[in-house]
Structure formats: structure tokens, C-alpha cells
């Protein structure tokens, strides 16, 4: 077989990513690489290279078929502190006195933000500094391991995008190792950023042997803007975990005399800067004539003060703290409608689709996508007859809530699909596509 060496052992491939189990910033940020790597272990010997910026372990019970090689990330350790498996800026919860020290810090942060806009264009302003410093320090050592272990392909999973540098990618390719860029999120196209970051992205994209994206819109944008042959771009969606979902029983659903709406995940009802702003939805729900017949739950965080402040205006509202993955699936099964928000006023929604959308879809509940008019999530929901779409205005959301409620009153069974999820939206199907791409690339490499 083309993915075996002459002595019958498996060929070796590797991932380079910024967060890996068990020392991950969060489970959500490492799922794509974890599932992809586990699938590829069926045919390849797989290693993950990643920074270690915390001693806190997460999801230790999850089976990992691959090996992970960590390199210390001392800069992140200085900028962050570990808190419940999530890295946060160490002084973001303190009110600082107007001291010389705080003034210097504020100037430094402002300078970093300006430099980020010019040089990196990372959503989190300091990630570019951290990632680029880390790859400068350990890039040569990673290349040595690639050479020593005869690694045939390196999959670089981004963001942060500055985890890869032009010089590093060139060194990897000189070793005869194929380079694949895996975009979990778009880099410069969503905000049409130009200058240094776009030039770097174009150079890196043209160096890559293959590029993975999560949807067709992003793939088309890369091909156009970065002058990359579309045949070198493959859509690999995140997908739902079919194996984990098979552990959830239909009996986990429940009957209710109310229209059950839920949001799964962490959300802040007061943060006006978030790309996931639910305030218009709550205002619409508050003014809905039949709100007494709707129960809205947030599964994944709890804010006691907010619950108290709104209980008289939205009577059937509740928030439940973070639950294990299978329990979150059960809550999806108990819901008639699952809502997702992407509320920023920019083009980002055209090139993004939330990973949870696929779990929403698999659950059989109807999806309410509150999103941009041209959002990819809207396309997914409408093309799969999976639910409803609304722009993020109170008037539009209220109109959509009325439509949902009337449909529910007419036929409640239509809100509980159980067995017709398309398997092509599963992680297993998508990662089999990755396996095929890799085997093809390395087969061609063997005959070069």
C-alpha cells in the first residue's frame, strides 16, 4: 500500500497546532485536530507538535491514538494564567490603580494592538506575538524531528496564523515533507485586510501542497484572492461525531407543553463587543405575545444576577452550568429549537460555520440561525431544510419567533427529527476525506 514503508511499517505524518490534548486551552479549540489525528492513525503513524503553556490537563479520559510532543511556551505562561482549563489574561479581572505600572502596561497593550493590525491581523491581539515567537524558537527543532523521524507530511492547523512562518514552511519542504494548511477559521478575507498579513498569507498558501477549509465560500475566496489553484483546496467540514451521537438514545428527549428553545455553549448577555450578542433575541422574546408558552435555556454557563434581572420579563428562562459532551447532546434532544448567534456587522459569517451547528443538525431539533444575510450557516440551514434564519434585528427575530411558534402549534412532530441526518456531515465522513487526500498526495510524492 502506498501509505506503508517497504518494511511494512506505517508512514509518519505530523500536525502542528497551537493547542493539543491534554494541555489544551480548551476542548473546543482542539477538537478538529484531535478527531482528524485519531482517524489518520488507522493508516499512518501520527505525531502532534504543540506549545505547552499550562500544566492543567483537560479531557484526560478521551482516547488519543496519536503521540504529542510539547514545547514549552514561556511567553504565554507570562501573559496568561490557567483557570478552569481556559487561559485568560492574568489581570483582566482586576481594577488597576492609576499607577506608573498600569500606565506603562496600557501603553504596551495599545502598541501591541496597533502592531497586530499592521503585522499579524489576529483576532486576539497578542496571539501573533506569542505564536511567531514560539515558532522562531522551536522551528528548527521541529524540523530536526521531522527529518529524524522521516515524517512525510505536516498538517499545520491555524489559527493563530503566525504559528507558521514562510521560512519555517520552506525548511519543512526542503526536507521533502509535504505541507498542508488546515484553516479552522479564515485569516484576512473576512475583514478584507491588506498589507503585510495578506502578503504572508498569499506566500504561505502558494507554498502549501494542499489547503483544507471548512466551507466552499472560504475556499472560493482563497482561490481568488491568493491565486491558488482550486484543485489544491479541499472542503473538510467539522461535522458531528457520529460515534458519540450513537450513544444518545431517543428516550433522552422529553415531552413538554412548551416550545423548548435552547442555546448550547457559553454566552455573555452583557458583552456588547461579542460576535455572539443575544440581546436583540432576548428583547424580541420579552415582547413576544405567547412568551409564556416558550421556555428558553442556555446550557453551558450560568449568571445568577442576569437570571434574577430578567425573570419577570422572560418568565421561563434558565441557565445551566457547563455539562459533559453527552449531556449537552441530551439537552439538544430535549429541545424543539436550537439557536445560534453570529451578530458582528462584517463579512465574517460568509466564511464561517460554527462547529455546534452540525451537532444542532444531528439532534433533529430545528435550528434558528441569527446571522448575516450572506452567512454560510444560513445557506446550510436552508439547503438542508433544517430550520429558520433571521437577521439580528428585534423586528426580524420577533417575526421569526411568531413563525416558529405557529409552526410548532400546527405540528409539534416536525420539530423532533430523529433519524434522517445526512452522514456526510459527520466528522467520520469528513476525516475519511482527509485520509484519501493524504494517501493521494503521498502516493504522488512516491512517484515524483
Q: In terms of topology, how is this protein built?
A:
Layout: E1 12-16, H1 31-40, E2 45-52, E3 67-72, H2 74-79, E4 80-83, E5 86-89, H3 100-120, H4 127-148, E6 151-158, H5 166-174, E7 178-183, H6 196-207, E8 210-213, H7 216-225, E9 233-235, H8 242-245, E10 259-264, H9 279-287, E11 294-299, H10 304-310, E12 317-320, H11 325-333, E13 337-341, H12 356-363, E14 366-370, H13 376-383, E15 387-390, H14 394-410, H15 427-446
Parallel strand pairs: 1-2, 1-6, 2-3, 6-7, 7-8, 8-9, 10-11, 10-13, 11-12, 13-14, 14-15
Antiparallel strand pairs: 4-5
Helix pairs in contact: 1-15, 9-14
Radius of gyration: 23 Å
Number of discrete helical segments: 15
Low-pLDDT segments: 81-97
Global outline = globular
β-strand amount: 15-25%
Mean pLDDT over the residues: 88
Helix content: 25-40%
Number of strand elements: 15
| Sheet of most strands | 7 strands, parallel
**What are the secondary-structure elements, in order, as H or E?**
EHEEHEEHHEHEHEHEHEHEHEHEHEHEHH
Structural class: alpha/beta
Spatial order of the strands forming the largest sheet: 3-2-1-6-7-8-9
Q: What is the rounded distance between the termini?
A: 17 Å
Amino acid at each position: 500500500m502506498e501509505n506503508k514503508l517497504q518494511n511494512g511499517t506505517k508512514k509518519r505524518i505530523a500536525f502542528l497546532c497551537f493547542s493539543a490534548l491534554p494541555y489544551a486551552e480548551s476542548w473546543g479549540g482542539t477538537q478538529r485536530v484531535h478527531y482528524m489525528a485519531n482517524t489518520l492513525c488507522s493508516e499512518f503513524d501520527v505525531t502532534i507538535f504543540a506549545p505547552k503553556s499550562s500544566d492543567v490537563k483537560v479531557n484526560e479520559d478521551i482516547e488519543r491514538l496519536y503521540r504529542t510532543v510539547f514545547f514549552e511556551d514561556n511567553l504565554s505562561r507570562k501573559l496568561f494564567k490557567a483557570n478552569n482549563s481556559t487561559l485568560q489574561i492574568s489581570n483582566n479581572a482586576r481594577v488597576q490603580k492609576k499607577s506608573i505600572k498600569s500606565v506603562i502596561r496600557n501603553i504596551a497593550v495599545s502598541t501591541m494592538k496597533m502592531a497586530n493590525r499592521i503585522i499579524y491581523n489576529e483576532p486576539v491581539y497578542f496571539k501573533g506575538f506569542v505564536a511567531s515567537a514560539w515558532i522562531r524558537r522551536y522551528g528548527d527543532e521541529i524540523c530536526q524531528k521531522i527529518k529524524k523521524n522521516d515524517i512525510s507530511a505536516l498538517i499545520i492547523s491555524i489559527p493563530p496564523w503566525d504559528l507558521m512562518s514562510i521560512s519555517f514552511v520552506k525548511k519543512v519542504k526542503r526536507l521533502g515533507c509535504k505541507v498542508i494548511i488546515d484553516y479552522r477559521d479564515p485569516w484576512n478575507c473576512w475583514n478584507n485586510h491588506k498589507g503585510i498579513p495578506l502578503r504572508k498569507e498569499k506566500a504561505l498558501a502558494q507554498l502549501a501542497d494542499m489547503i483544507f477549509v471548512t466551507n466552499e465560500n472560504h475556499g472560493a475566496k482563497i482561490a481568488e484572492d491568493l491565486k491558488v489553484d482550486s484543485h489544491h483546496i479541499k472542503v473538510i467540514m467539522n461535522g458531528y461525531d457520529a460515534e458519540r451521537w450513537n450513544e444518545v438514545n431517543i428516550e433522552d428527549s422529553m415531552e413538554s407543553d412548551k416550545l423548548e428553545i435552547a442555546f448550547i455553549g457559553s454566552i455573555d448577555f452583557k458583552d456588547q463587543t461579542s460576535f455572539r450578542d443575544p440581546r436583540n433575541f432576548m428583547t424580541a422574546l420579552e415582547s413576544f405575545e405567547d412568551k409564556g408558552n416558550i421556555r428558553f435555556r442556555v446550557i453551558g454557563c450560568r449568571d445568577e444576577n442576569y437570571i434574577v434581572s430578567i425573570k419577570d420579563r422572560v418568565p421561563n428562562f434558565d441557565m445551566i452550568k457547563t455539562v459533559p459532551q453527552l449531556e449537552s447532546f441530551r439537552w439538544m434532544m430535549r429541545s424543539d429549537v436550537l439557536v445560534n448567534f453570529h451578530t458582528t456587522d462584517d463579512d465574517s459569517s460568509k466564511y464561517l460555520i460554527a462547529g455546534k451547528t452540525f451537532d444542532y443538525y444531528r439532534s433533529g431539533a430545528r435550528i434558528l440561525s441569527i446571522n448575516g444575510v450572506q452567512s454560510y450557516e444560513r445557506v446550510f440551514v436552508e439547503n438542508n431544510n433544517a430550520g429558520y434564519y433571521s437577521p439580528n434585528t428585534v423586528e426580524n427575530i420577533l417575526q421569526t419567533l411568531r413563525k416558529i411558534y405557529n409552526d410548532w402549534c400546527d405540528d409539534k412532530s416536525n420539530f423532533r427529527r430523529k433519524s434522517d441526518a445526512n452522514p456526510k456531515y459527520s466528522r467520520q465522513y469528513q476525516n475519511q476525506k482527509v485520509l484519501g487526500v493524504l494517501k493521494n498526495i503521498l502516493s504522488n510524492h512516491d512517484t515524483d
